[in-house]
């Protein structure tokens, strides 16, 4: 049960008080900081880069808070930013295969910089990108919305895709994490877990509520079944 990781997406956090808001959500019991990077090119929105990641990591260190920073790169090209995010304190870096000319090289670049590597699938991205990478990936991230914005509705067809990826992970025998991102809330997190996910990204469902601890606790109760 404790294998489940709740990953608040800071896209819905208060950017004017980012350090404080992240500290609050981690104290509320969340596990991983999901850091959404958008470039107004690969996706139609613009967010934050390595400098903010570095500042956030420094703030977490000052506060004595330890939690992995999970950088979700929605940028094209992707390789150039990887060393910067690794230096800025990322523990996990995930990217979209459509944003890389050489997917295996990008995965290797992330690992060479000491981070865990993950591949991200948009709702309509086929799973065949996994065919030659199952022995290298640490995380597979399935988008349950089209990337670019928080607060969208979960696309139900993702559940079947989660089941397919779970089967592939079991067949690989490797401890690959299955993360789901987009429209995850208290009322559907159990269904997402039942389909096979074990990392749950939630932005608006957590940050749009006044009491983060209450939402995180409700999610854990749903996950406990
Ligand atoms: C979407 C981002 C998500 C987003 C999730 O492109 O990758 O991480 O912030 O937000 P919610 O949970 O509100 O759908
Ligand atoms: Zn994300």
From TrEMBL:
Co-factor binding details: Binds 1 divalent metal cation per subunit.
Enzyme Commission number(s): 5.1.3.1
Positions of substrate binding: 9, 72, 148-151, 181-183, 203-204
Claim: Endoplasmic reticulum is one of the keywords in the record: no
GO CC entries: cytoplasm
Annotated catalytic residues: 36, 181
Cofactor(s) listed: a divalent metal cation; Zn(2+); Mn(2+); Co(2+)
Xref: SUPFAM superfamilies: Ribulose-phoshate binding barrel (SSF51366)
GO biological process: pentose catabolic process; pentose-phosphate shunt
Binding positions (a divalent metal cation): 34, 36, 72, 181
Gene Ontology molecular function terms on file: D-ribulose-phosphate 3-epimerase activity; metal ion binding
Coiled-coil features, chain-numbered ranges: none
Pathway where it operates: Carbohydrate degradation
CDD domains reported in the protein's UniProt record: RPE
Alphabetized UniProt keyword annotations: Carbohydrate metabolism, Cobalt, Isomerase, Manganese, Metal-binding, Zinc
Domain of life where this protein originates: Bacteria
PANTHER family: RIBULOSE-5-PHOSPHATE-3-EPIMERASE
Assigned protein family: Belongs to the ribulose-phosphate 3-epimerase family.
NCBIfam families: PRK05581.1-4, rpe
Role according to the record: Catalyzes the reversible epimerization of D-ribulose 5-phosphate to D-xylulose 5-phosphate.
Name assigned to this protein: Ribulose-phosphate 3-epimerase
């Amino acid at each position: 049960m404790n294998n489940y990781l709740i990953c608040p997406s800071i896209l819905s956090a208060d950017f004017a008080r980012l350090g404080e808001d992240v500290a609050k959500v981690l104290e509320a019991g969340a596990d991983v900081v999901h850091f959404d990077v958008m470039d107004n090119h690969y996706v139609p929105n613009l967010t934050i880069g390595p400098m903010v990641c570095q500042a956030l990591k420094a703030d977490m260190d000052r506060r004595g808070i330890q939690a992995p920073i999970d950088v979700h790169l929605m940028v094209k090209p992707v390789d150039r930013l990887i060393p910067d995010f690794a230096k800025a304190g990322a523990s996990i870096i995930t990217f979209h295969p459509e944003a890389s000319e050489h997917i295996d090289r990008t995965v290797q670049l992330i690992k060479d910089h000491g981070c865990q590597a993950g591949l991200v699938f948009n709702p309509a991205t086929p799973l065949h990108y996994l065919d030659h990478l199952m022995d290298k990936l640490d995380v597979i991230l399935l988008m349950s919305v089209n990337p670019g914005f928080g607060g969208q509705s979960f696309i139900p067809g993702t559940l079947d895709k989660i089941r397919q990826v779970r089967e592939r992970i079991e067949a690989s025998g490797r401890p690959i994490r299955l993360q789901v991102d987009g429209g995850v809330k208290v009322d559907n997190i159990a269904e997402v877990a039942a389909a096979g996910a074990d990392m749950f990204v939630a932005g608006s469902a957590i940050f749009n509520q006044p009491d983060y601890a209450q939402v995180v606790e409700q999610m854990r109760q749903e996950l406990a079944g």
